[in-house]
Structure formats: C-alpha cells, structure tokens
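Thread amino acids onto this structure.
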C-alpha cells in the first residue's frame, strides 16, 4: 500500500456498528499530517447568533483543502483520497507529506477570509502523525460507506484529540500553528454551498450529542460504544425515525440574508458588485432547482425528482473521531430517557457526555456533482455540537476534580499508615488511573483548570474550560 494512496485503498465498512471493532481500523502512515481547524472563541460567536457562520467556516476549511488537492469540484479523477471529519466549529483533515505546502497556503487564505468577511479567527494547525504516536497515541482510520456518493472517515486511538489539544497549548503554538500571511493568492471554494432552509424536526426537537467512553482497554471501549449506539436505537427506534433530515423537510431558501453566507466566500471578489452578481446567480439556480425537483424532470443522467433523496443519503449526522457525535431527531420524552441512561453511565465512571437541544437543524453542503460526490454536514441550530462539547468539558472537569480530591484523600490515608480493604484498594499507595480518559490531554487540561487546597484536598477555584 503506497503512502500517498493509503486512504483511497482502504476497504469500506458498510454498517455503523462496524466502527466498534478495532480490527477494522488501519494505522495512518507516520509521515502524514493531522490538520486541525477551529474557530477561536466559537462559543461566544454562537451566543452572539453567528452559529451559521461558525458552521460554514468549519466546512470551508475542508473544501479548500480538497479542491487544492484535486479532490473537489474541478477534478474528480485524482487518485489521492483524503480523510476528514467535520466538527461543527472546525474540522480535522489528514494529508500526505507531498501536500503539506498546498494545504498550508490554502488554509492561510481561508484564515484571511474568516477575518475579512466574518470577523472571526480561524485557528489552523498542522501536527505530524509521528508526534501523536511518539506521545503514545494511535492515529487509526477506517472508511464507512454512507451512500453511493459519500464515504465517511472514522478515527480511533486518541491521536486526533491529542493533536487538537496540542494546537491549543500556548507553549506549542509557534511550532504547529499556521498564522495568516498577507497574500494575494486565491483559494478554490467551489462546491461549498449553504442553500437550504433550517430543517424542522419531525418529532419536535433535535439533540446534538457527543459521548466519550472512558472504560479501560480497547475491548471495553468498543463494547461500551456498541452498547451506546444500540441504546440510542432502542430509545429512538430505527434510523429512518431518528435521522434529522428527510426529503419532505428539505426546502431551498431564497433569503438574501441566508444566501449571503455562501456569497461572502464564493463571490469572484469582495466587491459589492461581484457579491450581488453571485447572490443573483445562486437565487436563480435555486429557482431552477425548485422547478426541476417539483416537476421531477429528467435531464441527462440526472433525475431531479430523486435529488432530495440523494441529499438525504449523503447527510453526515453521525460520526466518530475518538468520540461519538450525532444529531438525533426525537421527542422530549426520548431525550429524557437518553439523558437518564448517559447520566447513569457517567456516574459509574464509564463515559463523559454533552448534549444540546434545538428545534431546528442546519445543513452546510459540499456538492461536487449533483449526481455524484457530495456530503451534507448536519448540526443542531444555535450551536449544536459546539455547545454539546462545552457541556462535555464541564462534566470532564468535574470528573477530574473529584478524582484529584480522591487521590489527595488516599495519600493522606497512606501517610497515616491506614490499611484499606484489599477488595476496594488492591494496590495500596498506587493510584493507577481508572480509565483511558485520564491519559488524554483533555483530562490533563480539565485537571489543571482546578486549583486544589494542598491541605484539605478541596477545590479553591475551577477555571471554566
């Protein structure tokens, strides 16, 4: 298997539950790179009502790299295949070493666009896979077939999480961070679209969910994730019932305000004239599309009567990148049942989780061919994944605080010469970490955010994540 074509040559999984089998994953070559992008202070931007801008810029970084590398709207025959995952307020992309320079240049231009058009800081970093491996994290990937037009990248091993936290470490920024450079270079964002209205839930609400299992050992982790996925299906029913997007809930928008998001990024230039011309162009395309879909027109190989079904099939609403992420459509009663199950597992120390509830979902699209390669990223409106991640970090912080207090209590106990019950503390004085979460940089950051009283083992302060 060649390094450059490593991902394109991977076998394809067909069942989402296959991601719980670690033998289905292959190590990413050590000479590859992990590209991380995210919006700095995305929570504040979302709370200010800019959640659509945050989502669009997250997808923008993916399409910029794919187009630059020959996988986008202008070239579909390139044999290089690039794994990526959308995270709501950013993205993760893996690239071979031969594409490092082009990726850096493309994302530098996207950083400039983020500031100029949206007033946002897009943080970009490139971390060698070898760095994550040297820190005892794996970077393993599998390819999951979602539809005929989209195969999703799935990641395990903790390496992506490590790279993300490393990028946010002030001491490492100069090494791995990409800073925007003043340049007149252009970036190809063709394929990036934001043309659908917000999507209502068929059942009343959407839940944006993030779950990180913390059981010790890969077999236990796999078993727990399989249990979680099966529990979701038990609560919400078949996938057709809880998936957030259905053809009858898809409606194109003609709102100049909503279409201006795409216009800002894809107009020929930043001039008012070019933006207005592009806006009219996509409004006209939407009008034509509405006509073709309504009358189920057949044009060449494209059957417009089935286009919404094509879109639904390529929606990216459940994924795995060191943690499970889903956007689920359901009722309040179903959400309460899910939260009850997750809270029980959280209190048992088996996982941490975060959820966010909204009455709508939004979709940001990458469409390279109407009847071909495309993916439609789904997130809960008003902040979805980003605010679910905030809730997860709060639980992680509390878990870290409780563990730190417990460790200090046990150390004081050992200092007094107390002999614990062997069944409760089989290794007196040796405080082995109870789960894999505590080896992760997320755990370390949560632990460091809490200041403990050295005498009482109590928290004096806890800095918000």
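Threaded sequence (465 positions):
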């Amino acid at each position: 298997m060649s390094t450059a074509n490593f991902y394109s040559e991977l076998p394809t999984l067909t069942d989402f539950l296959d991601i719980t089998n670690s033998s289905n994953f292959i190590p990413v070559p050590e000479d590859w790179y992990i590209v991380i992008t995210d919006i700095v202070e995305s929570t504040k931007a979302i709370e200010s009502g800019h959640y659509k801008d945050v989502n669009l810029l997250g997808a923008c970084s993916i399409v910029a790299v794919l187009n630059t590398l020959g996988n986008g709207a202008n070239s579909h025959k390139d044999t290089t295949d690039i794994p990526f995952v959308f995270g709501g307020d950013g993205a993760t992309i893996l690239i071979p070493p031969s594409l490092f320079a082009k990726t850096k240049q493309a994302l530098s231009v996207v950083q400039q666009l983020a500031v100029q058009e949206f007033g946002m800081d897009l943080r970009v970093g490139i971390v060698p896979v070898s760095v994550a491996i040297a820190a005892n994290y794996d970077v393993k990937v599998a390819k999951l077939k979602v539809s005929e037009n989209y195969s999703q990248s799935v990641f395990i091993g903790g390496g992506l999480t490590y790279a993300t936290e490393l990028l946010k470490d002030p001491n490492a920024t100069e090494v791995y961070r990409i800073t925007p450079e003043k340049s007149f270079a252009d970036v190809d964002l063709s394929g990036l679209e934001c043309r659908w209205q917000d999507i209502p839930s068929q059942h009343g609400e959407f839940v944006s969910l993030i779950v990180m299992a913390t059981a010790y050992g890969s077999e236990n982790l796999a078993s727990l994730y399989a249990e979680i996925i099966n529990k979701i299906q038990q609560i919400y029913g078949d996938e057709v019932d809880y998936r957030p997007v259905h053809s009858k809930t898809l409606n194109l928008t003609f709102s100049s305000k909503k279409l201006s998001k795409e216009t800002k990024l894809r107009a020929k230039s930043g001039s008012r004239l070019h933006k207005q011309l592009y806006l009219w162009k996509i409004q006209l395309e939407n009008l034509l599309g509405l006509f073709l879909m309504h009358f189920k027109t057949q044009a060449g190989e494209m059957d417009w009567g089935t286009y919404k079904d094509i879109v639904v099939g390529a929606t990216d609403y459940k994924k795995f990148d060191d943690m499970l992420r889903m956007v689920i459509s359901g009722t309040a009663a179903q959400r309460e049942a899910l939260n009850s199950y997750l809270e029980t597992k959280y209190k048992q120390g088996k996982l941490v989780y975060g959820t966010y509830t909204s009455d709508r979902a939004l979709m940001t699209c990458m469409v390279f061919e109407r009847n071909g390669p495309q993916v439609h990223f789904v997130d809960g409106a008003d902040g979805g994944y980003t605010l679910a991640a905030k809730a997860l970090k709060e639980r992680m912080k509390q878990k870290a605080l409780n563990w730190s207090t417990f460790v200090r209590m046990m150390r004081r106990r050992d200092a007094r010469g107390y002999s614990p019950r062997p069944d409760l503390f089989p290794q007196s004085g040796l405080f082995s970490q109870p789960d894999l979460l505590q080896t992760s940089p997320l755990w370390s950051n949560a632990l460091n955010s809490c200041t403990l009283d050295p005498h009482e083992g109590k928290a004096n302060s806890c800095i918000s994540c």
